[in-house]
Write a structure and sequence with these properties.
The protein has 537 residues and is of the alpha/beta class. 31% of the residues lie in helices and 17% in strands. It has 15 helices and 18 strands. Helix 1 packs parallel to helix 14, helix 6 packs antiparallel against helix 7 and helix 9 packs parallel to helix 10. The relative contact order is 0.20.
Length: 537
């Protein structure tokens, strides 16, 4: 492994503090008119299953074309491996220990008198700054973790969920819950027969979501066409169950005749000792969902082009996290911080502002999206971020300097009352994975990503005291910097309502258990930390 030179501790800490306090006011003097902004978040899309990132299957012709017209960043790191906190990072520019939300069970805490304790979200959303500066903001999403009850939607004039299942439907959900509680089988059958699409795993939400986004956009262009817009679109059909409709369902493994269906992915039937043939088909079903979403996006981009707004629209396509297929023993996500879970695509296209066909080597992060958009639009966020402006790098006027990117994940093993804390630092071509529980010292695994850029290896345990201590010290400096950043941000105040049984059942029906993803052997049970912040040891 080639040796690397790290900054001295004082310089490193100073740069961390500086980075954490950078806002978004560093606009570009030579920038064209303020662009429209479109962010597309494709849930559960790991970067190495995208064609322009080297994948062997033809999963993403539309995204590949977008990258050819824009800029592709080699490695974009998410702040975690699941939806809720990563999207908060994507839309605030903050690391998890800065915005403070690391667990959905923060909505189920009560004080000694039984009153709910407010989740302590910090930071300012990109949509709030853009709205204050004259942008029209519309957002369309497809999974519960982006509900306004989790803090999302601030600054958007329109924030709407599409693609309901029977649990989440505003009318059918309460009816189904009542029938379930009364064990009225006939009522349940009647509800299912009256709303078959809500119960069909092959019903896709992407077309409905994109149509709603286009409807909002057309209304804006008709009424306020001279005002720029910010459109956020979240698509969920890559997520399990892997049940894209034909021809996508069998597109990448048409000869398979085994038992894998793409459903029940979180069940014990899908496990690490499954046959290579079945695992191959499971991945093929996942890839079929990627191609399905990509084809719908290709059509969507063509319609934007027909409206004559593409040149002046800054398009950002990314994901919140990846997906595991037992590369390191686990499946799905929200169980670990290996690269298959946190390395996501980042493609940016802005014909009027960035020369196309560029590739940027090195690392960037989801936290960089907000500062970059603020720089492109000339908008002041009005709050600090954890990220940096990538616009000069995308234009080739600045180098992609070596930066470290932090990912965080808090888990509770079954029956445990002390959190299992996970972290990842990726810098240049090195990744170190950290794990501790309670007051135990961090255990560390080191991966050299230069010969293994996908991080597929098992990692090398760091046991030499000097080397391990240096890496622990680097993480502690990160945590201390984020604590300082967090205290500089005002409390937002969130919905105090605890989750209802209906909401918990909705999450469970989507592959979650008690508000948590069912992963690995029997799943992981999780409880919140103090306000989502890493506590002192």
């Amino acid at each position: 492994m080639r040796s690397r030179t790290w900054l001295p501790p004082t310089t490193f800490a100073a740069l961390l503090a500086l980075t954490s306090l950078v806002g978004c006011g560093d606009g570009d003097e030579d920038a064209p008119r303020r662009p429209n902004v479109l962010i597309v978040s494709i849930d559960t899309l790991r970067a190495d299953h995208v064609g322009c990132y080297g994948y062997e299957r033809d999963t993403t012709p539309a995204l590949d074309a977008l990258a050819a017209q824009g800029v592709r960043f080699e490695r974009c790191l998410s702040t975690t491996s699941w939806t809720l906190p990563s999207h908060l990072s994507m839309l605030t520019g903050l690391a998890i220990s800065a915005h403070g939300i690391d667990d959905d069970r923060l909505w189920n805490r009560f004080d000694a008198e039984g009153a709910p304790i407010a989740p302590d979200l910090r930071g300012r959303f990109l949509s709030e700054a853009l709205t204050d500066d004259g942008y029209a903001c519309g957002g369309f999403f497809t999974w519960k973790y982006l509900d306004d009850r989790f803090g999302f939607g601030a600054g958007f004039e329109h924030w709407e969920r599409l693609g309901h299942m029977f649990w989440s439907h505003p009318e059918v959900g309460p009816q189904w819950q009542a029938a379930l509680e009364s064990q009225d089988k006939d009522a349940m059958l009647a509800i299912r027969d009256a709303h078959p699409a809500l119960f069909d795993p092959f019903t896709m939400s992407t077309p409905e979501t994109l149509a709603a986004a286009e409807g909002w956009l057309d209304g804006h262009l008709e009424q306020n066409g001279d005002d720029p817009f910010f459109l956020f679109v979240h698509l969920f059909d890559v997520h399990d169950p892997y049940t894209a409709p034909d021809p996508y369902y069998t597109m990448f493994d048409p000869e398979y005749d085994g038992s894998i269906t793409g459903m029940g992915v979180t069940s014990d039937a899908i496990r690490a000792d499954m046959s290579d043939r079945d695992r191959h088909n499971l991945i093929a079903r996942y890839d079929g969902g990627i191609r399905y979403v990509d084809d719908r996006l290709g059509e969507f981009f063509e319609r934007l082009e027909a409206r004559g707004i593409s040149d002046d629209t800054l398009v950002v396509v990314t994901s919140d996290h990846g997906e595991e297929f037992f590369e390191h023993g686990g499946k799905t996500h929200r169980s670990a911080l290996w690269l298959e879970s946190i390395s996501v695509p980042l493609i940016v296209r802005w014909p009027a502002g960035i020369e196309g066909g560029r590739f940027v080597a090195g690392n960037v992060g989801l936290v960089d999206i907000v500062p970059t958009i603020c720089a492109a639009t000339g908008v002041e966020l009005g709050a600090a971020t954890s990220g940096r402006n990538l616009l000069p790098i995308a234009r080739g006027t600045a180098a992609n300097d070596v930066q470290a990117y932090l990912s965080e994940l808090t888990l509770f093993p079954p029956d445990a009352r002390v959190p299992l804390r996970n972290a990842s630092l990726v810098r240049a071509n090195e990744q170190v994975l950290y794990r501790t529980q309670g007051r135990a010292p961090w255990t560390l695994q080191h991966l050299d990503l230069e010969p293994d850029p996908r991080g597929a290896g098992p990692g090398k345990p760091l046991t030499q005291s000097g080397q391990a201590d240096r890496w622990r010290d680097r993480l502690e400096r990160w945590i201390q910097s984020l604590r300082g950043l967090r205290t500089s941000l005002p409390e937002r105040g969130l919905d105090l309502r605890p989750m209802t049984d209906l909401e918990r059942n909705e999450l469970a029906a989507g592959g979650y258990s008690g508000g948590d993803e069912v992963v690995g052997k029997g799943g992981q049970d999780r409880l919140p930390l103090e306000g989502g912040v890493w506590p002192d040891k």
